[in-house]
Design brief:
Length: 277
């Protein structure tokens, strides 16, 4: 069992849970993730480790409440516990030895970008983070990212930072020159747009793929992605890949496979939750 020691609402549908997991906190590296199961019979959900506190033996999980299972997780309170947390899983981020990196975070992807930006900064890399949300209340991890480098905030409605999409700010940085690598993490359309933007400039672009996962060890094949025309598994070969080699169309199609089932499960959860309260 992994007790929850802290809970914070980061945006209208994004919650941070700090949970006790000392073994994972001790060995986790940037870019790695865990698979959690709220309780017996519950769905297995992959979540990035946004931060760790080795001394306290805790890890921070940032969860976007979209489906029934993520709503169940974010409804937990301090003192409750998560039954299973498996990890750390996946390959760690390959960190640059120097130069200038741009970390692009869209929505909850900003929490995934943070440990990468943090590690790059500690390695002596200049870090610029470009983060976005539909409006100010949807922007997360701004203060944390400012502690490790420059930050450009973009909002769709212009209510905070600069108006427009993160890709527009990224384009200006790349065109100005001096960018050695881009890390883009967020919705599939955003990662695809960032990768296409950097391609003609020859700027290495790394993306973290949020494909469907079950066991997290490569055995089920659910997280299969096409990289340079070859099948790889996001759980054990990734989750980070060369954005210029990813078949984003296939990734999007696979992510949409269970949309109807997910919607039906959410509606059942909302009904039972409303009846219980």
């Amino acid at each position: 069992m992994h007790p929850i020691v802290s809970k914070a609402q980061l945006s209208p549908n994004v919650t941070r849970l700090v949970v006790v997991a000392p073994r994972i906190a001790e060995i986790r590296q940037p870019g790695q993730f865990v698979i959690v199961r709220r309780g017996p019979g519950a769905e297995r959900i992959p979540l990035t480790i946004a931060d760790v506190d080795k001394a306290a033996g805790t890890i921070s999980l940032v969860i976007q409440a979209i489906g029934a299972s993520t709503h169940e997780l974010t409804s937990l309170q301090v003192g409750d516990a998560i039954t299973d947390i498996a990890g750390p899983l996946g390959k760690p981020t390959h960190l640059m030895a120097g130069g200038h990196a741009v970390c692009v975070g869209g929505g909850v992807g900003t929490a995934v970008a943070y440990p990468i930006a943090q590690a790059l900064s500690r390695s002596g890399v200049k870090v610029t983070s470009v983060i976005g949300g539909r409006s100010k209340e949807w922007v997360i991890y701004e203060d944390e990212l400012r502690a490790v480098g420059d930050v450009i905030v973009c909002t769709d409605d212009g209510s905070y930072g600069r108006p427009g999409f993160v890709t527009e700010a990224l384009k200006e940085l790349v065109e100005a020159g001096g960018v050695d690598e881009v890390f883009a993490i967020g919705p599939v359309p955003m990662m695809r747009a960032c990768s296409e933007l950097t391609r003609p400039f020859g700027v290495k672009t790394t993306v973290s793929l949020n494909s469907i996962m079950i066991d997290g060890t490569g055995m089920c094949g659910g997280c299969r992605v096409s990289i340079d025309g070859k099948s790889q598994y996001a759980c054990c070969d990734g989750p980070e890949f060369d954005g210029h080699a990813v078949d984003f169309r296939q990734l999007a199609d696979r992510l949409n496979t269970y949309r109807e089932f997910e919607q039906a499960a959410l509606e059942r959860w909302q009904t039972s939750h409303a009846e219980a309260h």
